[in-house]
Amino acid sequence: MKLTQILLTDIEEGFGEMKRGLCVLAVLELVLALVLVALTMASGIAKSDLSVDDVLTSIFGGMMIYDFTTNMPFNLPIAWLLMMALVLFLPLSYPLRDLSGFGLQVLVGTKNRLAWWLSKCIWLGLYSALVWLLALAISFTVSLVTSGSVDSGVSQDAASLLSLDTWDYVSVPRSAGLAPFVISACMMTWALCVAQLTLSLWIRPVLSFTVGALTMFASAFFFIPFLPGQYLMAGRSNLLIKSGVDPLMGLALAALIGAVSCAVGAIRFSHMDLVGKEYSS
Prior knowledge:
By secondary structure, this protein is mainly α.
């Protein structure tokens, strides 16, 4: 019962605190979606060919696999990095905000640190689901308005416009649906947010955010399956290219990161001296 009460408070206070940030996220996603529509019109490709997955890839496509051992130029995926930075930044301050004030009063009132910690982890899961539901809603709406349908799969034309690898599309003009990618990416987003929160128990939140941002950059530069950012780029999924990463591997890695982070954070938080501490960015 205490966990439920704390979680309801977290939902009200946490999401209420980030309303403006979520609006910014929605606007950014819409802009990236409309960029694909504009590129499609400029290239002469029929807008009726744009699927939900095409639009979703314009938001979370990332970049094609980069091979630094060749002379291949590294084109920084600025839009994707900005998107992921915003996703990681939005839930940064609330969970440990003002533990010497209102947050500490809630904690003392419940007399259950584990319930308090688990509530924050669950709240981050709800936040991650909201992030991807928002992206899907925008993708669905833009696809429906522009094409009149809500087909799945990424087309060769859309992938080419987004500077993604289209080699595998020679014989298959449209990829498989991205539902497995979305599920895996949502879980990975949750795991990274929990890991960021756990790291904030040792260092300032802004520094834990920096670690997350650097991890995203490394994921773009190095194609290593154990770098979590690989599973947040549709352009590197084996649903689009044969050499891509497997969403099932992403789910397993997300479960490992999330479970370890939650457990380590619970142990750390249960032994912390919170009196007189203020957790600001």
